[in-house]
Amino acid sequence: MGRILPCPLxxxxxxxxxxxxxxxLPTLKPGFLHGDPRPWIPGAFQSSExxxxxxxxxxxxxxxxLIAPYPAPGPETDSLLRILGDLxxxxxxxxxxxxxxxxxxxxxxxxxEETSLEFANAAEGLRGYRSAFRHVGRGGAEAILLLPxxxxxxxxxxxxxxxxxxxxxxxxxxxxxxxTALDYQRSLSEIPLAVSQGPMAPVEKVAIVMPHFDDDVxxxxxxxxxxxxxxxAVRMIWLTDGxxxxxxxSEEESAAIRxxxxxRAMDILGVTDLHFxxxxxxxxxxxxxxxxxxxxxxxxxxxxxxxxxxxxxxNLDHFEANxxxxxxxxxxxxxxxxxxxxxxxxxxxxxGVEMDDDLRALKDEAMRAYPSQITEVDYxxxxxxxxxxYARDSEAHWAEAFWRLPAEDYWKAFHGxxxxxxxFL
Length: 425
Description:
Blueprint (H helix, E strand, L loop, with lengths): L6 E3 L10 E3 L7 E3 L9 H9 L6 E2 L6 E5 L5 H11 L6 E5 L9 E4 L12 H9 L10 E8 H8 L18 H14 L16 E6 L4 H15 L3 E8 L10 H19 L3 E7 L9 H13 L3 E5 L6 H13 L8 E5 L10 E4 L1 H11 L3 H6 L2 H12 L7 E4 L1 E4 H11 L4 E3 L1
Parallel strand pairs: 1-17, 2-7, 3-4, 3-5, 5-6, 9-10, 9-12, 10-11, 12-13
Antiparallel strand pairs: 6-8, 7-8, 13-16, 14-15
């Protein structure tokens, strides 16, 4: 069950919850469940072994840390909960990413500071993607959810107790993370993880509604290129003005630079129907003139598919974009397909757009049209890492993944997740 009462939180500048950066896991004798974790988080064990820990072993009663992949809702979660039920409430448990991206509270260094754009497998891609939260995209990082067994059990059950009495002195158990992690866990239960959605079929009209300049390419650049190549009419709508995106210049200059870059990126992808709603970046709320403008743009265009960011993306404007889109949504479009995607919090799905070398190169070219953003964080490398992980179940090397469903069902899931009750003040 989602939230009944509103959940007020301090309004962050950008990222909703930023993981702590650590050096090693707190263990001398780690034990793992559900497969060897070393292919996915090798750096965690290299660092721990340098502190005197033994290599990870299959879980036994003598271990001092339990390690397991983040489970999908259902049997995987039930299996882990049975183990957690046998542990003391304070026993440390570390979950890592494999098939399901987690809501991390800890990042560990992985590998050197290299900046390669190639990734041999999904695990390497995920570590490269996670480096966006550390070293501006260079090297690699391993995302961990490290919690005591009792609190983790509440979280996996999607119980309100998961966020009850956060530890103000504990950097890994603070309210912002616990509240948003609970919303994320509830959001996972709204997604049919066992259902393969397959490739997207072309439609006559596609609208793209994105919070920021560069989200267009990062979230669905290959899908846009496919749509224009198929002859679909594509309407591009940006919600915010880009004033915060270039740290070395004034807000006015930043906005001007990013508008220009956006036009260049869309020229590369073949989109000419462009709309700038110019809500203030990092201050996006549904009560603004941009909401009515968005309503008119959608109502007039009547798309069969709308690409946007999903509500559990770990970014303030990305979350608020769902509130704006919900308020602006025309009732006549309730059966229109929403194709939601994730960047700052990956979707646990595959299926959407598989990229061959030509499509990958075109998306890279469009991403390079945003040099101001690549200077801030190497988003090209971040995107290639994430798209390598999204292709983990396909024969392609790169992919974009989308959660696709009728708008009416999407908004029901948004409400059911409890995230709609979250308010940033």
